[in-house]
Write a structure and sequence with these properties.
Helix content is 76%, strand content 0%. It has 23 helices and no strands. It is mainly α.
Length: 403
C-alpha cells in the first residue's frame, strides 16, 4: 500500500508516509481498546462464565470483579460473581453478592436457588428452604431448585419429602441423571434394594463415566446377593474416577464372600497400592488373611488400620478376636472393650466379649454382653454382616455355654 504514496516532492512523500503509519497506529490502538475489559460487558461476562465452567475460578474472579466495577447495577454479573464465591466455598461473600443480585432483580430465580445452596451448606435450613421455595415460586419448572431442595431435605432426614422432590424433578426432565442417583441412594438407605437397583441402573445409563454410580450399584447388588453383577459393577468402577481404590476394595470383599480368596487378595492389594490410606482395603485384606489362617499378616493389616484411625471399631474387634484365638484373654478383653466403646452397635464385638468373659470365668459380664449382642442382632436383622462372626459363633457355641 505504501507503494501507492508517490509524490515528486520528497518532503511531501515523507509526510504522507508518516501520516499513513500514524493512521495505522490509531486503528491498531482502537482494535486493542475494544478488547480491553469494560469495552464489551457482554463478551466479558461470557468469558467469565466460560472460565467458571472450565474450573478456572481465579480467572473468572478477576474477569467478573472488573465487570462488577464497570457495571455495578448488573444483576447477572453479581449473580455469577456469587457463583464463583460459592465454588470457592467463600459462603459469606457469595451470599452478599447473590443478595445484591436479588436486590437489583427481585425475580431472579437462579439467585434464590444459589442462595439456598449456601444456607443449606451452612446448616441454616430455616433460611435455605424458603430460598428454594421462592425460586420455585418464580420458576416452577426449575429442576435445579427442585433437586437442591430434595438434597436439603435429605440432609434434614426428611426422606419422604426429598424423594418426592426428586420424582418431581424427573417428571419435568426424565434425563436429570442426579435425581436417579439420589433416589437410588435414598432407597438403599431404607433397605429397598430392588427399587434402589432400578434407580441406579438408570443413573449409570445416563452417566456412564461416573465410577461412584457403579460403586453404589455394586453395593446394592451385593445386598441382593447378586455377586456376579456386583463384581461387574465394581470392576467397571475400578477403571474410572472418582475412587478406583474404593471400587477395588469392594470388589475384593465381594470375592471374599464368594470364597474366592486369591482374587480377593489381588483386588485388595491393588486397592491398597492405589491408596495406602484406604482403611476398608486394609480391613478386608486382614479378614481374608485371617480366614486363611495367616494371623500375623492379618494382625499387621489391622495394626495399619488403627495407625490411620485409632478408634476404628472393626480393627479393634479383629485384633481382640485374634488375641482370643491365641488364648491371650486379657489383651482380647482390652481390644474388645475398646471396640464396643467406640461403636456401641458393633454386635459381633459384644459376642466376642461374651466369649472372652466366659473364658475368664465372669458369667454375669458374659450374660450381659450376650444379651446386648442378641438385642443388636435383632435390630440389625437382614443387614449384611461382615467378617467372621458366624463361623465364630458356630465354633464356640456360646449361646449354650453361658446359660
Amino acid at each position: 500500500m505504501t507503494g501507492e504514496i508517490r509524490h515528486s516532492n520528497p518532503r511531501v512523500r515523507k509526510m504522507a508516509i508518516a501520516v499513513f503509519w500514524l493512521l495505522i497506529a490509531i486503528v491498531s490502538a482502537w482494535a486493542l481498546a475494544i478488547q480491553e475489559p469494560g469495552a464489551d460487558p457482554a463478551a466479558r461476562l461470557r468469558e467469565g462464565i466460560a472460565s467458571i465452567r472450565r474450573g478456572d475460578l481465579s480467572s473468572a474472579e478477576n474477569i467478573l470483579s472488573e465487570l462488577v466495577k464497570q457495571e455495578p447495577n448488573s444483576a447477572t454479573a453479581r449473580y455469577w460473581m456469587g457463583i464463583v464465591f460459592l465454588e470457592q466455598s467463600r459462603n459469606d461473600a457469595a451470599a452478599q453478592s447473590l443478595l445484591k443480585a436479588i436486590e437489583l432483580r427481585p425475580g431472579y430465580a437462579e439467585a434464590y436457588d444459589a442462595l439456598g445452596i449456601i444456607y443449606d451448606r451452612q446448616g441454616h435450613y430455616e433460611k435455605s428452604e424458603p430460598a428454594f421455595l421462592h425460586a420455585l415460586a418464580l420458576k416452577p419448572d426449575d429442576t435445579n431448585a427442585l433437586y437442591n431442595l430434595g438434597l436439603s431435605y435429605l440432609r434434614q432426614k426428611r426422606t419422604a419429602e426429598a424423594i418426592a422432590r426428586f420424582q418431581e424433578t424427573l417428571k419435568i426432565d426424565e434425563r436429570y441423571a442426579k435425581a436417579y442417583l439420589q433416589l437410588g441412594l435414598a432407597d438403599s438407605d431404607l433397605g429397598k434394594y430392588l427399587e434402589a437397583r432400578d434407580w441406579l441402573e438408570k443413573y449409570v445409563a445416563l452417566a456412564p463415566k461416573d465410577g461412584f454410580g457403579y460403586i453404589k450399584l455394586g453395593e446394592v447388588f451385593f445386598h441382593l446377593i447378586m455377586y456376579p453383577e456386583a463384581i461387574q459393577a465394581f470392576k467397571t468402577a475400578s477403571t474410572m474416577a472418582p475412587d478406583p481404590s474404593h471400587a477395588l476394595s469392594q470388589l475384593g470383599f465381594t470375592y471374599y464372600n464368594l470364597g474366592q480368596y486369591p482374587e480377593a487378595e489381588q483386588a485388595l492389594e491393588k486397592a491398597r497400592s492405589l491408596d495406602p490410606k484406604n482403611i476398608d482395603a486394609l480391613l478386608y485384606l486382614g479378614t481374608v488373611l485371617l480366614d486363611e489362617g495367616k494371623r500375623q499378616d492379618a494382625f499387621a493389616c489391622f495394626d495399619q488400620s488403627l495407625a490411620l484411625q485409632p478408634t476404628n471399631s472393626e480393627a479393634l474387634y479383629y485384633q481382640g478376636y485374634i488375641y482370643y484365638l491365641e488364648g491371650k484373654l486379657d489383651k482380647a478383653l482390652t481390644q474388645l472393650q475398646a471396640a464396643v466403646r467406640y461403636s456401641p452397635e458393633n454386635a459381633k464385638a459384644y459376642y466376642a466379649l461374651a466369649l472372652t468373659y466366659h473364658q475368664l470365668k465372669q458369667p454375669e459380664a458374659a450374660q450381659e454382653a450376650l444379651a446386648t449382642f442378641q438385642k443388636l442382632q435383632a435390630q440389625q436383622h437382614g443387614k449384611t454382616q461382615k467378617g467372621a462372626m458366624y463361623e465364630f459363633r458356630e465354633r464356640e457355641g456360646l449361646a449354650h455355654a453361658v446359660q
